[in-house]
Amino acid sequence: MKWKDLLAVAAAGALVTGCAATAAETETASASASGPSKSSAKAAFPSTYKRYPSDNVVITGATIFDGEGQQIDNGVIFMSAGEIVSVGGPDTAIPTDSTIIDGTGKYVTPGIIDIHSHLGDYPTPSVPAHSDGNEATSPVTPEVWAEHSVWPQDPGFSRALANGGITSLQILPGSANLFGGRAVTLKNVPARTVQAMKFPGAPYGMKMACGENPKRVYGNRNRKPATRMGSLSLTRQTWINAQDYRKKSKGTKPPKRDLAMETLVGVLDGDILVHNHCYRADELNQIIDMSKEFGYKVTAFHHAVESYKIADILAKEDICSAIWADWWGFKMEAYDAIPENAALLQQAGACVVIHSDDENQIQRLNQEASKALADGRAMGIEISDATAIQWITYNPAKAMGISDQTGSLKSGKMADVVLWNGNPLSVYARPEKVWIDGAMLYDANDPGRRPVSDFELGQPGEGDVK
Amino acid sequence: MKHFAKILVSSLALMAAPAAAETIAITGGKVVVGDGSAPMDNATVVIRNGRVVAAGGNVTVPANARRIDASGKWVTPGIFAGFSRIGLVEVGAVRSTNDTRAADSVFSAALDVQYAVNPFAAPVAVNRAAGVTRAVVSPSTGNSMFGGYGAIVDLGQDSDPITKARAFQFVEFGETGHSRAGGSRAAAHILFRAMLEEARTYSRSPSLFDSDLMKASDAKALLPVINGSTRLMVHVNSANDILKVLDLRKDFPSLKLVLVGAHEGWRVANAIAAAKVPVLASALTDLPEGFEELAATQSNIGRMKQAGVQVGIGMINDRDAHQLRYSMQYAGNLVALNRIPRAAGLSWDEAFAAISSKPAEIMGMGAKLGSLKAGRQGDVVIWTGDPLELSTQVETVFIDGVEQSLSNRQERLRERYRNPAPGALPKAYDR
After folding, report:
1. Which CATH number goes with the domain that contains A305?
2. Residue A96: which residues within 8 A CB-CB, separation 6 or more?
3. Is the peptide bond before A139 cis (omega within 30 degrees of 0)?
4. For a surface tag, which of A8, A237, A392, B163 has the fewest beta carbons within 10 Å of its beta carbon?
């Protein structure tokens, strides 16, 4: 069997990851000061990302989707010094000494954000030597960090930028484990080191998983968990241990640093956002009850193909569903997936995020959002174009804890911007230019503004349009 | 099990009385013939006795025809999936419902998907509702480089899905062939040649056949491949592997090759064109998933087309059992490439042909399937708009001139949970 095929099977299970932590978590979680563990972990592996040089750029005459559900026709956007300065209608003041781009007939959106990616930890080429996404040696591994697996030379980053307009993305560990480890949020800027891609100030995520994958991986080895009830018991016991560690770390004799416990305490303290891979409605509800038992919040359920069955509950609990538009049938717990999942959640007032979990579909998240929108409209649910864009911009930013910095076109935010050559909800549109922190890092009209990873240098097809 | 039985019963009820093939005139729509010609506004399509009688602007509507007003709509041939595993899989990871690959079988080339294709599988109904009416169905390979016989099927709701059984033999070269043959490309090439030679030995005296390499059934199955009466569909990706596959005809001149995948086909497009070998190519693969596709690009199909290769879209190993409905999106993306400097796409007309007439022609079925030319099977879809656009929905589907039910599990679940909270009774009573 080809390794890719193995991965495909894994993708149905082990690769699929998911969890969710939203800004709301910060509010509900304990406000108490964290112990020494927190500061130690926070100081480690800091971001060294620095924005690249930028010009003052004005785009005029474009249709703008601002990422927060608003559409501006014949709009103007002004970026300077890496930030968005102003966004508005045709009367918006156009500063002098700026590069002016005529956006007539074109569209502007915030940079697209994928909340669920394995670029770098399951990079291409998908050879066994590159399989770094699942520490499948124990079902409980909150101590591992996805950033320690990320290969910055994964060619997938460049495709996501050029074809998908992806400017920020969360790289998660896989879903073989109940506690998969820490996720990391990156700016989609090519770099020599992962640290130089790390989104400055972004909170960590933690990957959790329920359902088929952990019980398959460990049950096949005749160890726990072999059942869903085994999974819940092991997960709950781990939280009990974390509560104990947290209590001791606030005492006079703090315990020795424990990487696993530091991550879990980070969740209990509200500093680390929970992204929980989970498919079935009944299991989503089990996880919600478990989170209440231990006083943490699930920020987002990932994959969540049955969220539509409990859309009312998810709206009430303020938990995002990070979902595909239409994947289904690849495993038992994905059998009841329907293409109207996003629209039914939106109708119920629940948070919708369209994610990829895939190195190909990350290149067209805009199209995935568009399909989900169309299927909703076909069943009579009214949703605006601008809302569908929010599913791949502001909503993921919020669930990744970076919505105060990016995810929408608001004055003072990072100038993470995509100029599309047509409506991004159309199959015929592609990114024309992409700016990250104001720096133009992709231009369809300029071969010099197309990144080529080390891996592809000197290979057939180097620098091709891909 | 009970649950499954119930689904089966309801599906049987659905198909118990399919509407007989009637005379139908679809009028006023924008008609796409599917042969690469431009759409015709305000045109008429007439179907009679299960076949297309005419499609065009000056078509007389028979007096007895059921008229369907398609004003403002698009009317096209049904989508023809150039490569799939449709009907072979219900749930991918549930092995008992997955018939793509017989890893533990003692047979290889003799395996025949016609006995495995299940017309009542949920993915058939889901993709039918999305406008897919015909498909190439291929086995995967198990413990040999040969996977067995593939078929051409329809996605109709009746109990007979097979349009053409034994339409081709499937074989893996490239990285998978390397693995199946024992660990090298050299092993794959000698195994291929040796198995075909053994098949010739078998044909000389079947009763005496005794081979360490293969069963008599497999040898027999390869005979029509050697003489070219059955197509040999070769999964191959790298430029070099493609050239070596084209060279197989030096030893076996009658081989009727079809390439599938062909991610680096553009690099050797002139050689493929000169060999007159058609290609069912993956549309949007642009990453080096393996070293056999370092030069993969979405411009692959456009560049091969420019070089004169006969090419259609075939989504091998890309959700090919469940998501044939991606065909339209993939074709639309190839149109989008035309606006990117240095990229090579397809015109809209060519892109639609790549998911209708081209796969039919490549499989030797162009006179019967894949377009709305007179005499073709009455596979017709009425769409709310441009069929390649993401916002477009399917309104009506005909297969062999019979209007099809568009109902499926996904639609039933959607309606049950239109309002998620239970009413006076639990959701289980809501149907």
Report:
1. 3.20.20.140
2. none
3. no
4. A237
Q: Classify domain B2-75+393-416 by CATH number.
A: 2.30.40.10
Distance from CA of B280 to the nearest CA of A (A): 19
Give pLDDT tens digits for B262-285. 999 999 999 999 999 999 999 999
Class of CATH domain B79-370 = alpha beta
Bridge partners of A83, per DSSP, are A80, A414
**Where residue A40 falls among pLDDT bands split at 50, 70, 90?**
low
Dist CA B344 CA A131 (whole Å): 33
Distance, in Å, from the CA atom of B92 to the CA atom of B140, rounded to the nearest integer, reads 13
A457 — contact with chain B (CB < 8 Å)? no
Chain B nearest C-alpha distance from A230 (Å): 21
What's the rounded Cα separation, in Å, for the pair A307 and A318?
A: 13
Q: What is the pLDDT of residues B187-214, one digit of tens each?
A: 999 999 999 999 999 999 999 999 999 9
**Predicted local distance difference test score (pLDDT) of residue B19:** 57
d(CA A337, CA A276): 17
Taking the Cβ of residue B333 and every Cβ of chain A, the question of whether any pair is shorter than 8 Å is answered with: yes
Output the pTM of the full model. 0.94
User: Average of pLDDT values for B44-51?
Assistant: 97
Q: How far is A34 from chain B (nearest CA, A)?
A: 40
Which residues have a Cβ under 8 Å from the Cβ of A373 and sit 6 or more positions away?
A: A342, A343, A383, A385, A387, A388, A425, B391
Q: Do A329 and B122 touch (CB under 8 A)?
A: yes
Across the interface, do B123 and A329 touch by the CB < 8 Å criterion?
yes
Domain that holds residue A21: 3-49+112-407
Query: How wide is the angle at C-alpha B193 spanned by C-alphas B189 and B197, nearest 5°?
Result: 170
- Chain B residues inside the 8 Å CB shell of A163: 286, 298
When pLDDT is cut at 50, 70 and 90, the band that residue A66 belongs to is: very high
Phi, psi of B361 (to 5 degrees): -65, -45
